[in-house]
Target: AcrR family transcriptional regulator
Amino acid sequence: MAVADMAERPVKDRAATAARILAAGKAVLAEDGFQHFGINAVARRAGCDKQLIYRYYGGLNGLMEAIGGDLGDWVKTHIPEDSGGMFLLTYGDLMERLALLYLDALRADPLVRQIAAWELAEESEQVRRLSEARSKALAGWLERMRGSLQPPKGADTATLNALVIAGIQQLVLASVTSGRFAGVSLKSEKDWDKVRGALKRLVHGVYG
Model:
């Protein structure tokens, strides 16, 4: 075997193992929650020695930071920076785009749903880090996509947008636990089409 090949293999092995640990950490969080998020649990899921978690991530806190960074990539993947064929003529159009993308992305991802649920259920440094990573990525998307679009004068965009995001999260979480919220069915795609229509009316009612 060539010397170059021998040097390349450890780099590839390290990258593959680090990726496997990261995936295992996300899986443990999504399926078992923070109460079961530990070195041993992640190592078992990854099929590796727990010392490798310390070597590659510096321990659980470093792994949590990596998962937080991965949430930023999640936003880039699931909430693309394009108009999706829409004509974004107003700030309301922009918020409609973000709201609908976030709704569908949250419905499809159990880890991010878990994080949204933990934000309501517990106060911890780990939850705060993951919540802030997602919020920062969403705010960055909005800022980059906004361009010259401006909300109506005097609109408290931070609070209004938080209410829209919170409403989306509550409906998605309720759909998983009970399939309905406040008398609104959340079981079929027809139900979700109604939600999408209501979201459009809501954001345009607020922002024009």
